[in-house]
Amino acid sequence: MSKAIPPLWAPMTDQAQFWSDAAGRYEQDFIDPYHADVRNPLLPALTDLAGAKDRTVVDLGCGIGPLLPFLATHFRRVLAVDFAEGMLSRAREQCKTLSNVTFFRKALTALRGLPRPVDVAVAVNSLVLPELGELERCLESVHALLRRGGTFLGIVPAIDSVHYLTMLLLDRARQTGMPERAARKNAAAQAEHELYDLAFGEFRYRGLVQHFWQPFEVSYRLQRAGFHQVRLAKVELSWEQFGAIKDLAGHPPPWDWFFQAEKP
Ligand SMILES: C[S@@+](CC[C@H](N)C(=O)[O-])C[C@H]1O[C@@H](n2cnc3c(N)ncnc32)[C@H](O)[C@@H]1O
């Protein structure tokens, strides 16, 4: 794993480039929320929202496009947005036979040029903008893009899940008879604490700087952006996705947070 950590003030344009560079090895570096063993409320929720296939959905931060074929089947029109050309070119390739998907290279803070209003906006692990001002602007842009009564849903990476994993790893080390100080060091190394700012919810890896969320933060930030009826649920990941620490599989797995909210 690369330890090359860019300065915190790296501008957003750099982030677009880092994301673009990450597209080629995406499957190796990122946990797949659509894996068969993951308990993910997203697809049933989207199916409910699709109605009689007469609605428009926008996939915000579509990445290499894993959700787009599903959206194209269930919705009349799909807008796919990402600021990273490397991601968009893989997504376009994956959707070349789908006639109702349109791609837009745009930042999530600048959605003004998109066809609007949309009925449903979905963001899967893309609400990760590291600067809070930008994150707030992004949520406000999504709110403006949706019709009244429209739905915003998605998944955000969970920082509390890293704390949970740390607890399990610490106890696992202590149970081998390791003194507590050494057990802490061991847990921190296994949970890759050097890549996280655990207090502020930030993850830095190969130049990417991502915001990771606390559960209480999801309703707080969505409400501040004008959404209401915020619902949260765990996306239960699979221990299979955690390589070397699969032996913790007797415990409930780590998670990310699914959310669903309405524009009044
Ligand atoms: C972790 S990937 C998730 C991709 C996809 N939603 C999925 O589930 O596989 C995050 C995606 O969000 C995009 N992204 C991150 N910040 C963005 C921003 N400010 N504007 C537009 N896209 C952004 C990245 O380029 C990347 O494709």
Plain-language structure description:
The structure is a single chain. With 264 residues, the protein is α/β, with parallel strands linked by helices. It has a single domain (19-158, 213-262), classed as Vaccinia Virus protein VP39 (Rossmann fold). Helices cover 35% and strands 23% of the residues. The protein contains 9 helices and 10 strands. The strands form 2 sheets. The protein has a 7-stranded mixed sheet with strand order 3-2-1-4-5-10-9, sandwiched between helices. Strands 6-7-8 form a 3-stranded antiparallel sheet. Helix 6 (132-145) links the parallel strand 4 and strand 5 (146-156). The chain is globular, with a radius of gyration of 19 Å. Residues 6-10 have low confidence and may be disordered. The protein binds S-adenosylmethionine (SAM). Residues 19, 30, 61-63, 66, 82-84, 87, 107-108, 124-126, 128-129 line the site of S-adenosylmethionine.
